[in-house]
Amino acid sequence: MLADLTLTQHILSVVSGVAVGFTLGLIGGGGSVLAVPLLLYLVGYPNPHVVIGTTALAVSINAYLNLIPHARAGNVRWKEAVIFAIIGAIAAYIGSTLGKAVDGKKLLFLFAILMLVIAALMIRPKKVKPGEMEGNPGQFSMWKLVVSAAIVGTLSGFFGIGGGFLIVPGLVFATGMPMLAAVGSSLFSVGTFGLTTAVNYASSGLLDWTVAGLYIAGGIAGGVFGARLATHLGKSSKGTLNLIFAALVAVVAAYMIYKNMSAFGIHL
């Protein structure tokens, strides 16, 4: 099931990891959605299911590492984060089991549709409501938290993504916590969902540990450079980068749809 990659492909795996980590550090999210297409089309890994399992592990480790500075800064609401992660991890296991059973090309086609949704969410103006910055500590709706975690976890496991772009609004919706706390708390779930998916795929031999290690190493280096550059950019510059990245995600998604539509009997 695992591919015998060349030295060039190993180098490209590190480069891909750097690109993902750099994007995450620079604009604060979305970069992990490029992990799958980079490993598929730049590195040239032939097995879509191994790609999803491998990138899930890389995204998980990256999220846990980024959780550390947020935890030190007090940006993590641990009670809500742990509940969301536990419920979501169970759902992620179910979702990843379903994902393994789906034809690889069909899974990639659906993944590309999700990428288009992510691109649209990234360019949508973010409005801060009165009182949102303060939040409402200590009070949250348990049923909203459970339902949100179950939905997001299932999607995260099925597609093998961290799901931060869904976890953050899910936490805000269920708990009313401020955005900064939601971002910090979401990383615990992103890491847990990714690890759950990776373990499920690994149990079926659908995880390349060498490539995962190269991706993680590249992601750590890229994240450091991206975060440093982000500190030197103004708000307007970050907004422009966000638009450019969203456009890139949309273009890659369109390419993936074109490459995999034959799985549904559609030919151009």
From TrEMBL:
Keyword Zinc in annotation: no
Keywords recorded for this protein, A-Z: Cell membrane, Membrane, Transmembrane, Transmembrane helix
Localization annotation: Cell membrane; Membrane
Pfam families registered for this protein in UniProt: TauE
Membrane topology per record: Multi-pass membrane protein
The family this protein is said to belong to: Belongs to the 4-toluene sulfonate uptake permease (TSUP) (TC 2.A.102) family.
Protein name according to UniProt: Probable membrane transporter protein
Organism name: Thiomonas arsenitoxydans (strain DSM 22701 / CIP 110005 / 3As)
